[in-house]
Structure formats: structure tokens, C-alpha cells
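Reminder to self: C-alpha cells first, then the designed residues, so the page reads top to bottom the way the pipeline ran.
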């Protein structure tokens, strides 16, 4: 009896008869995919159409489809297994078209990601299979929203008091809302209206005042396209859908404002940027060459062999090639977005990683360790950027950032983080060298310690100057934007704290004339924590005027409670081993 209720609700929701709904419910995943499978080439052509998102940005459907699929599944493609058991993938564009064409199929496909941390708890309410759930599973047989009590309870709490379950329930609710919005066609804002003074683009079935000829196209185009899809899937002939997409291109060109519609070149470059996954490839390259270069750099301390020097140069050149590709990605994102690409957490993290690598390459004339260290820093930073913590979506600028100061102030501030981070990692390498000091290698280790410490002092000096200048320039921008130079905003306060801490670090050789090498490197290593708080901590745990880069509040990583004691132990051990060297 309950199954019949489910079928009736399912039929009502999707406007199909109960018998058809019951048949769909029995289909396997490959069968559901097969009944709405869109040709890849046609999907690519369709995805070159431009669309306006909720924030007003005009972008290719390819980008919109990719952003939505990432929000729903956490992945760039939809993976499934064929009848023969072979692993297959649908592109984001195929999924986007399919969800509009056959929403009844996507009701029954596992397209909503359930966070791992609360998966077991959520499984008590809805069915979860391999970390994913189907949209239909969020409703009971009477059509009631199963998670509604959890969602209401989560939203009733202040943001700072929500636990992990609350946050994940809110994410699930958002993903489900995205699914229904796609099903209803509200994301398909592909119709510009030259009569609209706000330059708004419209989705099908909205009340819009088009001209008589345009009104006919607006009313008929999408239904005709979906009908053409049905015939093309059966006959595998995509000529008519391609013609309709061509007409839509023409409609957009004739009706969109010239300052909004992107050129064909820009659209193609944005699609290329989406496909290349530049920064993810850079992570792989930095990991591979950075790790090998680190090993070679350490061996060079103990063995002065020509083969090691040649290998180090080759690896450094390869690392420079990855950096060039990294810079190309930043430049491409700059061109696509139309503004400097360091306006949110994701972009700033990617930029800091690039500045750090640049600093490492510049200071790798005598030893390859700085370049190796910054490559591995870049891996960590870009790994964080590509995790669930940050959103890689390209967005329009918020009003406060529409200023030339974005290019100056933010670039200098975030760039300083790269230099200061390099200094802290070099300090860590120095302490490791001190730990491995012995009678046999004492001379070589001392030489390496002096060399790396000297580089650390230079990079920290540059970073401190950049941080100080950037903070002062930020005050000028604050006066232009908010009418005051300084307001003890959390970001401003922690920037000042970081300046004071690093100023103290740079004065250690004056304060502690004896044994300053050890103290300087220990303090330099731990000084990085102030930058972490300034960049990440303020954004995710405190609120202020810089909340435009804020993400979802996250718990303190468990690794912190392991890493900090290990670094303390390393410092004590390094002090014990190095004391013997200084005594001699």
C-alpha cells in the first residue's frame, strides 16, 4: 500500500501517469541513463550557449553545469556503471541537459552527495548508497520532506552554534533545492531581453515583455528543443537540436547588450579553462618535482657530486615549467573573470601558492631546498583550495571590491604571505638539519644552516615589508570605502598582530646575540601560525567587514593537535643537538 502512495506522489510531482512512474521506479541506473542520454558532441555545442547566473554573471552553460554538478556531487563528472559493469562517465553538460529533458530519471539517480562525517546519521532518515542519495529518497510515501525537522532545527540555531550535523543537513537541503530548481528550468536563463533596463536574462515560463517576434521564440524554443532531443536520442541524429542551439546563439547575439555578451573567443577560453583543470595538474607536478628536488637538496648538503647538481638543475627547470603553467592559469582566470583573481578564499590561496613558488625559485641559486619547500607548500595550499572548504566558482565582484585598490592592496598583502610562509618552511628545514647534526657532518650542516637561515632572513624581510605596506594601503582603501582608516576589524587586527610577531622575529639576532640561529628559526617556524589565523582563522571563525571571502565555519582540523606537539618536540630536539655544536 505504501509503495502505491509513493507511485502516486511521484507521478503527481513529475506530471507522468502512475503506471509510467511505477515502471521508472523499476529501472536500473544504466537504463535510466540510456533513456535520456545526450550525445557528447551536441552537449558540448549546447554548453557554448551563454547563460546568466543568479548573481548576474554571464558565462557559458558549460561553466554553469560544472558549478552545479560540483555542488551536488563534489565531482566534475557523473560516474556510473553500464549493464556490462564498465565504468562510464557523463559530462556536466550532459547531466545539465538530461536533468531538464528527463527530470523523472534524475529523480531516481544518486546525484546528491551526503557528507562522510554525518553519513551514518543521515542514513537513519534517508537511503544513502556509497555516499550519495537520490532526490526521490528525501520524501516519504505521502510526499512529506523527510529532513524538514532537521533542516528547521539547523536553521533555528545561530550560525556559530551549529554542529557538524546541522551544517551538513543545510548543505543537503541546498543540494536538493538546486535539483528542484534545475528540474523547474529556473537556471536556464538564456533569453536576454533588450527591453529590460536591468539587462536581466530570463528562463522559460517567466512573465516577460518581449517584442512580438521574440515572444514567439521565447515561448516555443525550449519546448521544441526538448521535443527534438526525444527524436534525436531515438534516431541518433542530432541535426535538429543543433539547429535550435544555433538559433539560440543568434537570438542572444541580437538581443543581449554588447557589454554583457562575451565574445566567442572568451567563451571558448572559459570552456578550455574548465576542461584543463590547470591548478589540479599543478598540484600533481609540484608534488612530483618538489619531492624529488627536496631529496636531491638534502643529499647535496652531504655529498658534493656533479650528478646531483645536474639533477637538481633539471628538476628546478621542470618546477619552473609547472610554475609557468600555474601563472598561465591565474592569467586565464583573470581574463575570464574580468578582474584580478584574488577576490575570494580560493583565488587568494592559489595566488599565495604562486608567489611562494616564485620566491622559492628566486632564492634557489645556491641550494634547491627553497624551491622544493615552496613547491610542497603550494601542494598544501592548492590542496586546501580544491577541498570542500573553498568554492572555485568565478563570480562577479562585490561592490566594495570594485576598486583599483583590489589590484594593489590585496596583491601586496597576499603576496607577502608567500614570502613569509617560505621563511617559516625554511626554518623547519633548518631545525631538521640541526637534529641530524653529528661529529662527521658538523661542518656541512653548519654551512647549510647558515645558508638557509640567511635566505630565511631575506624572504622574511621582504614579506614583512610587503605585509606592512599592504596594511597601510588597506587603511587608505578603508577610508575611501568605509570612511575610516582603522576600525579594529578582525582582519585588520590580525594583520597588525602578524606584523608585530614577524618584527620580533627579525629582531631576534639583535636581542639574542648568542644562539640566535636556533631561537630565530624556532620563532620563525611558529610565526606562521599568526598568518594562518589572519588568512584562514579570521574568515572562518570571526566576522567582520572582510566577510566577503568568508566560507562555512569549520571545526579545527584534528591534525593541529598532532602537528603542534611534533613541532615542539622537534624544536627541543634541535636545541639539544645544536647546543653541542655551539659549545664546540
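Designed residues (584 positions):
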Amino acid at each position: 500500500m505504501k509503495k502505491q502512495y509513493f507511485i502516486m506522489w511521484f507521478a503527481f510531482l513529475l506530471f507522468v501517469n502512475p503506471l509510467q512512474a511505477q515502471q521508472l521506479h523499476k529501472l536500473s541506473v544504466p537504463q535510466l541513463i540510456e533513456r535520456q542520454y545526450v550525445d557528447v558532441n551536441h552537449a558540448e555545442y549546447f554548453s557554448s550557449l551563454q547563460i546568466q547566473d543568479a548573481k548576474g554573471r554571464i558565462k557559458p552553460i558549460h561553466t554553469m553545469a560544472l558549478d552545479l554538478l560540483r555542488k551536488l556531487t563534489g565531482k566534475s563528472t557523473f560516474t556510473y556503471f553500464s549493464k556490462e559493469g564498465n565504468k562510464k562517465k557523463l559530462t556536466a553538460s550532459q547531466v545539465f541537459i538530461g536533468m531538464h529533458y528527463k527530470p523523472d530519471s534524475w529523480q531516481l539517480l544518486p546525484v546528491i552527495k551526503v557528507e562522510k562525517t554525518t553519513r551514518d546519521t543521515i542514513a537513519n532518515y534517508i537511503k544513502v548508497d556509497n555516499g550519495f542519495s537520490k532526490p526521490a529518497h528525501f520524501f516519504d510515501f505521502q510526499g512529506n520532506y523527510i529532513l524538514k525537522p532537521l533542516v528547521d532545527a539547523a536553521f533555528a540555531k545561530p550560525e556559530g552554534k551549529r554542529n557538524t550535523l546541522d551544517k551538513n543537513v543545510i548543505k543537503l537541503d541546498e543540494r536538493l533545492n538546486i535539483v528542484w530548481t534545475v528540474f523547474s528550468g529556473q537556471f536556464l536563463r538564456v533569453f536576454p531581453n533588450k527591453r529590460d533596463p536591468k539587462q536581466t536574462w530570463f528562463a522559460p515560463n517567466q512573465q516577460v515583455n518581449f517584442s512580438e517576434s521574440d515572444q514567439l521564440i521565447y515561448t516555443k524554443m525550449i519546448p521544441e528543443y526538448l521535443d527534438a532531443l526525444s527524436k534525436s536520442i531515438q534516431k541518433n541524429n542530432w541535426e535538429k537540436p543543433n539547429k535550435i542551439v544555433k538559433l539560440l546563439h543568434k537570438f542572444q547575439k541580437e538581443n543581449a547588450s554588447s557589454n554583457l555578451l562575451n565574445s566567442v573567443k572568451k567563451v571558448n577560453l572559459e570552456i578550455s579553462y574548465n576542461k584543463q583543470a590547470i591548478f589540479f595538474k599543478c598540484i600533481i607536478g609540484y608534488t612530483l618535482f618538489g619531492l624529488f628536488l627536496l631529496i636531491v637538496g638534502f643529499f647535496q648538503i652531504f655529498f658534493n657530486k656533479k650528478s646531483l647538481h645536474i639533477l637538481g638543475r633539471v628538476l628546478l627547470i621542470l618546477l619552473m615549467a609547472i610554475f609557468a603553467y600555474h601563472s598561465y592559469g591565474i592569467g586565464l582566470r583573470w581574463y575570464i573573470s574580468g578582474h584580478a583573481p584574488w577576490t575570494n578564499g580560493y583565488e587568494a590561496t592559489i595566488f599565495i601558492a604562486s608567489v611562494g613558488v616564485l620566491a622559492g625559485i628566486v632564492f634557489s641559486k645556491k641550494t634547491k631546498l627553497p624551491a622544493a619547500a615552496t613547491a610542497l607548500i603550494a601542494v598544501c595550499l592548492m590542496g586546501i583550495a580544491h577541498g570542500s572548504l573553498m568554492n572555485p566558482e568565478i563570480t562577479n565582484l562585490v561592490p566594495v571590491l570594485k576598486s583599483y585598490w583590489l589590484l594593489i592592496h590585496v596583491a601586496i598583502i597576499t603576496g607577502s604571505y608567500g614570502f613569509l610562509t617560505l621563511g617559516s618552511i625554511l626554518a623547519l628545514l633548518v631545525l631538521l638539519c640541526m637534529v641530524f647534526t653529528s661529529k662527521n657532518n658538523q661542518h656541512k650542516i653548519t654551512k647549510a644552516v647558515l645558508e638557509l637561515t640567511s635566505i630565511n632572513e631575506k624572504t622574511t624581510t621582504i614579506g614583512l615589508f610587503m605585509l606592512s605596506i599592504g596594511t597601510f594601503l588597506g587603511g587608505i582603501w578603508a577610508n575611501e570605502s568605509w570612511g575610516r582608516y582603522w576600525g579594529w576589524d578582525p582582519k585588520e587586527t590580525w594583520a597588525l598582530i602578524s606584523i608585530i610577531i614577524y618584527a620580533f622575529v627579525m629582531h631576534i639576532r639583535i636581542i639574542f646575540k648568542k644562539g640566535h640561529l636556533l631561537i630565530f628559526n624556532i620563532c620563525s617556524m611558529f610565526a606562521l601560525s599568526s598568518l594562518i589565523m589572519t588568512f584562514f582563522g579570521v574568515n572562518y571563525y570571526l566576522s567582520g567587514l572582510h566577510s566577503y571571502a568568508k566560507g562555512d565555519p569549520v571545526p579545527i582540523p584534528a591534525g593541529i593537535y598532532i602537528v603542534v606537539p611534533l613541532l615542539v618536540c622537534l624544536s627541543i630536539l634541535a636545541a639539544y643537538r645544536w647546543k653541542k655544536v655551539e659549545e664546540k
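The radius of gyration is 28 Å.
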